From TrEMBL:
Residues 1-21 are annotated as: Disordered. It comes from Actinoplanes philippinensis. It comes from the Bacteria. SMART domains: SMI1_KNR4 (SM00860). Residues 18-133 form the Knr4/Smi1-like domain. This is SMI1 / KNR4 family (SUKH-1). Signal peptide: none annotated.
């Protein structure tokens, strides 16, 4: 939370706060998959925000550029692979939380131009490790 409070924000975009139970349930319904506990915990702190290079995604149907379900709809094969987009890099690429298989719980990077159907590199052994690094770079 300290890192989240230190991240620079555009003046016209105040901190939106965390998602409530209804917003989390709505996001799960729109995604069509249950959310991992770590992601629910993060969304309760930050429901999606235009911070860091490409924003952190979440329960933001009010802002499609920050909405996890809107992003997943652009790459429907990610759902079958068990990947949930959690952040962008500002260049049209995404960081995804792996929710199934041997890499479950880790965060990978997908270069959508080179190959939107494969993880190019692993960027964090957990969502929290990834977010700590992401927010530290911007904070």
């Amino acid at each position: 939370m300290r890192l989240l409070s230190r991240v620079q924000r555009p003046p016209e975009r105040p901190f939106p706060g965390g998602a409530d139970d209804q917003e989390i349930a709505d996001l799960e319904r729109r995604l069509g998959v249950p959310l991992p506990d770590s992601l629910v915990d993060w969304l309760r702190s930050c429901k999606g925000e235009a911070i860091c290079a490409g924003g952190v995604l979440g329960a933001r149907p009010d802002d499609e550029s920050l909405d996890m379900a809107t992003c997943l709809a652009m790459f429907p094969t990610w759902r079958d692979s068990g990947w949930l987009p959690v952040a962008g890099d500002g260049c049209g690429n995404y960081f995804v939380l792996v929710t199934s298989g041997e890499l479950a719980g880790q965060v990978g990077f997908i270069d959508t131009i080179a190959d939107p159907g494969s993880i190019e590199s692993m960027e964090g052994r957990s969502l929290w490790v990834f977010l700590r690094r992401l927010l530290s770079q911007d904070g």
